[in-house]
Amino acid sequence: MSAIIYQSTKFYHAREQYFAVAGEHTLLRLTIGSIGGHQGGAIKTATASDFGAPPIYRDREALINALQVGIQNLAGGEVDLCIDSDGKGRRFAEICLSGTRDQLFEALTLLADEMARYLGQPAEVDHTAGCSDLRDLYDDLCIAEGAPIYLSDGVYLGSDGRLL
Questions:
Q1: Which fold does the domain 4-129 belong to in CATH?
Q2: Residues 30-65: pLDDT tens digits?
Q3: HEC profile for 39-77?
Q4: pTM summary value
């Protein structure tokens, strides 16, 4: 299995962005820019998927662990990850790298492949079957991670994408 890289359309205001899909999930995002005046970018675990893209891997802690393991496997040692939360309180891990666009794409592909092997994708596919579109809607609408969202007429959308 080889990860597939797509250009992201999720953030129109952001710099050049891409996302990596491996197995049935969007696992990583890449933002290309400069680091300290040098060409490079940031690779981070995905917290939300692009419109029409495969859903993100739901277990954020497992995704962060998979990124750590992938980096260790590829780099041959421990590398410090920046762990942070996005504007909606969703945890993610990020690593900044210097290099050309082609080098960053190669790193993104290799990391996504390593992560997919570590995560054992098929088990999660069954867990989220039928809820990915509603889960994506939850990701787009939530203000506080985990809190249900009121839709209409007493119907709420849970953080797992189920209607309550």
A1: Yope Regulator; Chain: A, (3.30.1460)
A2: 999 876 788 999 999 999 888 888 999 989 999 999
A3: EEEEEEECCCCCCCCCCECCCHHHHHHHHHHHHHHHHCC
A4: 0.72
